[in-house]
Amino acid sequence: MTATIELSLAELREVTGYAVACAVPALAIFERARPEDGRPRTAIDAARAFAEGAKRSKSIRDSAWAAQRAYQETRDAGQPAASEAARAALAAAGAAFLHPLAKATQVVHILGSAAHAARAFELDAGDDSGADHLAKARGLANPVVVTVLMRYPEAPGGRGRVGELLRTLDSSLRRSAS
Fold this sequence. Notes:
- This protein is mainly α and 178 residues long.
- The protein starts with 8 loop residues before the first helix and ends with a helix.
- It has 8 helices and no strands.
- It has helices spanning 9-33, 39-51, 58-76, 80-94, 107-125, 130-140, 143-150, 160-177.
């Protein structure tokens, strides 16, 4: 049986707002590659509306699925930076559906948009500059976000370079809370 975590609607909105703030900078990468494709922006806008007080609705989930399709299409077209930017948008929308289950995989709902955005910046620049975006993401994490994060187990292993970035951010935020 999996333990549950107390998670208020206000905390869920804070986490979602954080995920949106982490994903927004990477939108420029996606929109440069696919200027006519508004799916990632729509996902971020839906998540932002929830963070600002709108109901958690099917439209958030639908826009997340659309961002997922944008990710797949750009990946298949050989546009890896744009695909990671779309995944950051997908993760921002997914943050609205953080589950109160004490599972490490739930940390991806909290920090996934930051990790995917950081990877998008790395792929766009052709280097390992994701650390710069992670530093910004650390600064964006307010005490509510960090308090929620601390209720969950540490980020899971695996997931390649995005997983490394996720675990780096997770460790950094946990250390800052100690």
